[in-house]
Each structure stands twice: as C-alpha cells, then as structure tokens.
C-alpha cells in the first residue's frame, strides 16, 4: 500500500491529546492518525447515521441553560427508573 502526505489544521487541544496519547502508548502520530481515520470512516460507512454521536453538539443558549439546570438539580427518578436500577423486571 502506497503512502501520501496530507496537511490539516487541528486545534491546539487536539494536537496536545494526540501527542499525549502517542507518547503514553508508544505509537507514532502518523500511525495513530491513520488508524483513527480508518476507524471513523468505516463507522460512518457501516453504521446508521442516527447512531453516530458527533464529538461536538451545538445547542442554543436556552437549551444549554435547560441542560445545566437539569445537571445542577436533576429531577427525582420515576418509579420505573428506580425499578430498572434495582434490577426489577416490569411485569
């Protein structure tokens, strides 16, 4: 299999993650990028679009505030939720 070089701009945070992972696992950055791209593209081709979760979600300010409200003060679990977590089956 031949090789070719590509150039891409990435965030400094992504670069730091890439370098940290490569260093910690003793792999070359090129190898890691090749495998990550192949894995990602294969998933995009093979899986239904509705099961792919994007790495970033963009929401409105109103939606973000609603999410924060639920994170800060989650609602009480429903009876069904409690049963699920306790391992009971619905009959």
Please trace the helix and strand order, writing H or E for each element. Answer: HHHH
Major sheet details: none
Number of strand elements: 0
Strand content: under 5%
The number of helical runs is 4
The unreliable regions are none
Distance between the termini: 57 Å
Helix percent reads: 55-70%
- Give the overall silhouette: elongated
Structural class: mainly alpha
Number of domains: 1
**Average pLDDT reading:** 91
Radius of gyration: 21 Å
Structure explained in plain terms:
The chain has one domain (12-85). It is mainly α and 91 residues long. It contains 4 helices and no strands. The chain has helices at residues 12-25, 29-46, 61-72, 79-85. The radius of gyration is 21 Å and the shape is elongated.
Keywords:
mainly alpha; 0% strand; 91 residues; elongated; single chain
